[in-house]
Amino acid sequence: MFRWIVIFILFINFSLMVSAQNETIYMSVLSSQKHQWGNIENPVIGIFRSSDAGRTWEHIGWQGYIRTFYTETGPDGTIWAGCGNGVLRSGDNGKSFTITTGWEVTEALKVRVHPYRPEIVYAATAYGVYKTIDNGNTWREMNNGLPALPFTSDLLIDRYDPLKVFAATEDGIYVSPDGAGTWNRAGLKGNGIRTIVQHPTTASVLYVGTEENGIYVAKDGGLTWNQINDGLEHLTVYSIAINVSNPDIVYAGTHGGGVYRSINGGSTWQQVIDGLTNLDVHALLILPSDSNVVFAGTLNGGLFISYNGGDNWFFNSQDGGQIWGLSVTTAKPE
Amino acid sequence: MKYLVYIFSILLFQLCGLTSAQLQSSVVDVYSEYLESYSYRAEHVVTAFDTSSNLNYYVVAAKYARGTRIAEADSMFLELLKEPRGDMFWMFPVIGAYLHGKEVMAPEVKKAVRNAWKTYAPYRGDTENHWCMYYVSLYLAAEQWPGFSGAEWFNGKSSDENLVESREYVLHWVDITTTIGQGEFDSPDYLPEYMIPMLLLADFAKDPDMRTIGNMMADYLLADFAVEHLDGQYAGGFSRITEPGVYEPLRSNSSAYAYLYFGTGVTSTSGWILFPALSDYRLPEILFHIATDRDHPYVHKERKRVRNVIRYGEEINPPVYKYTYMTRDYALGSLQGGILQPIQQQTWSLRLTAGHPHTAVFGLHPYWSGFELGMFFPQRKKTLVADVVPSKTTYNQPGKWTGGSPYERTFQHENTLIVLYDIPEGTDSEHISGFFPKTLDEIIIDESGWIAARAGNTLIGWYPLRKYDWIEEEINWRLHSPYRKNGYVIEVRSMDEYDTFTEFRNALREHIPYLNIQGTGVKLTYRNPDDEHLQFTFPDERFINESQVNLGEYKLFDGKYLQADVGSRQLTMQYKDMKRILNFETLEVIE
Q: How far is B376 from chain A (nearest CA, A)?
């Protein structure tokens, strides 16, 4: 009973607090068991946005089913989305979208916007890496040095050295020193990499989640990788999120095991799934303004929220939905 | 004597000339007759839609094309456009109906169609046929509404941008198809998804080159079908086939095309042939003959490509080798095996002209996995099976009748087919299945081990290499063999070659395959009734009379009717003294 009172108080505090924040969360709903492609019902999937920390969501696009994998906002407020139809851009805060890519670009799984130069955007696709340097007017394939089948699940732009880009491929990690112009192998050969994230304060610390082998960490900028699976019983890791306020707290979204949490930078892991009724967690997001608030996007179970750092989870929205991407921004359109 | 020879020669020459002229006249007559009967069939299809009150775009298109029920068509079109849905399956009938009716439709309907291309955002899809429909439709739409800004299109691109992008893709698709083959090749169910866009291009593209491409690709696709056409059925191995067409072939969509274009199979008023029936395109005479002349058996080989492999492989489009033996009464065809397409592949089949409606015999290893799906789809392999099953309900069923397997390989030589399996322990499904329709005239499990069957004039032998259960099901007998190292030999002959079914059985008894599964391999040695010595070691060592088969030598098309080299961008059709060359480099048709 005491626990529920605490949760209630946390929720009230959270509710009072969010109205004062300027955060916008973007959720990419790939598909839904209730709204599949071909369903006669009009599919309500795609890009959703919340400006009140997930209490309410606004569907901003696209008008139809185009398989939205991930949405991210650039520093100038431009919205970018990786989709089956290519890479979408909205420069008017989601009122309208343009497909910026041509027929060559498809299955864009992630988009990553340069942290300081909003006209530079990378796309991780099933056919490798694409890049625009002119706000999406033109795109170039950037697969020089990647494997013959350059399927790339994720990209990481080094915040402190944005020319340095990491690619999460089906055959390990690749790094580019020149903005994806050339790629070099950076370890974990043979591993399908699902996600790569950078420590919020120590740039040389990188975490990756893999398809079969759990989590690896590199503390030297990606030169050497060490497996850190102590306590992690589910080794397919789709997403990793690091608490900006306390970077020792790290979350991992797994296949079949829900959410794991580490309070020591990944040295040990503990499963935190109370209330999480779907255990295939594909996307994680920690609210920057309140690191106790964590979102977990599942595959076919919709979106869940925790108000106490993962101790308890509550269903939020998108019943039956595949939540492929979560991101947050404070940027507003110029 | 010298004079006699001279006179005899003149007479012979005149006789030959007469015969040739008569023959030519006869062929011409056949084609005239064909065109007449085609018109009748097309008319029949169009009438069915023109007179229908069903609310769909095909009905709208037919009414516009006929021009007698314009107001009704207008009203239906407006109603349908209130709630667009279906993505690329929406795009092509909408632009098709518009193009057939734009000269007669009411202004508000035109406005509604235009508005739909602004407000409804269709998914581009994730298969070759989706993209073909999407980009051809977008191309035609962009031609119809030139000069519009991005704000007037669903994708934010201007008319010019849409025109350029869609044209580029169509040209790319033509190029890849005519150099390394289609990925969704020879599909009894997905032929229309290519044919309709090509015919819409042929009929309505403003750019003359695109019209030519539409016409030439329609020829190309129908040539591909014609050469493996058996009495209304698509024959051989297939990239994609669905139930019930897999065991009831005339229910596949391509059979509607066989009806319309070849005059075979069963009468159809399928929506999939409405646009073809409205089209000005006519099947070239040579293709009519290729589709229907089965007087002499022939071997036809093809090279296609695997659908885009995005991961878990070595290259994006490995080759597919297809071998088909065509006769008047049956067609036996196979792909080399392995995963060549997800979900709906049929690696081999025997198609029959007798025993309707279930005119197919085939076997498979019922395989499914996230690995297979992950090769072709970008989602997560551990959840992909669950993602696929709601729409492809039999995908993970042990009793299913479609799908390829990485643990299955074939070796075909004329009318002998060997299929071997080497299934690892722990695979979700460790058995193999064989489908024998109950519509076979006779079926006997011989003490020699051969299962012998007859369907009309076709004699079938199936030698299971391991023990099996023989299970009666509603429309068929199922051969169920639970051994992981497994296989069978298929022999198919005609009653022209054996006087009686008994004689065929006696011949089979004298030819028992030898399977060697000692150690880790699976190897078969066999001398067939034609005294050919065949050796097959799983997965890819094939010998005929001690000479190794090199599948890598396969051309895009290689047979007496069709010839095309890999990379050639050219297809040569040949029938007796008729020839037709499609040259996609120059966009010329040479006859």
A: 9
Buried b (16+ CB within 10 A) or exposed e, B153-162: bbbbbbbebb
Domain count, chain A: 1
- State the smallest CA–CA distance between residue B389 and chain A in angstroms: 11
Percent of chain B with pLDDT strictly greater than 70: 95
Rounded distance between C-alpha atoms, residue B443 and residue B433, angstroms: 17
ipTM comes to 0.93
CATH number of the domain encompassing residue A126: 2.130.10.10
pLDDT digit string (tens) for B47-102? 999 999 999 999 999 999 999 899 999 999 999 999 998 999 999 999 999 999 99
Residues B20 and B61 in one domain: no
Task: Confirm or reject contact between A151 and chain B (CB < 8 A).
Answer: yes
Quick one: B228 and B142 in the same domain? yes
Structural domain including B466 reads 298-571
Which of B120, B131, B132, B155 is the mutation pick for testing A, counting most A CBs within 10 A? Answer: B155
Q: How far is B155 from chain A (nearest CA, A)?
A: 5
Q: Do A63 and B315 touch (CB under 8 A)?
A: no
- To the nearest 10 degrees (0 to 180), the angle between helices B191-204 and B208-226 is 150
Show the CA angle centred on residue A322, arms to residues A319 and A328, nearest 5°.
95
User: What is the domain extent for residue A13?
Assistant: 2-329
Contact B121 A103 (CB under 8 A): no
pLDDT tens-digit map of A289-323: 999 999 999 999 999 999 999 999 999 998 889 99
The C-alpha atoms of residue A287 and residue A281 are separated, in whole angstroms, by 17
Do the Cβ atoms of A251 and A294 come closer than 8 Å? yes
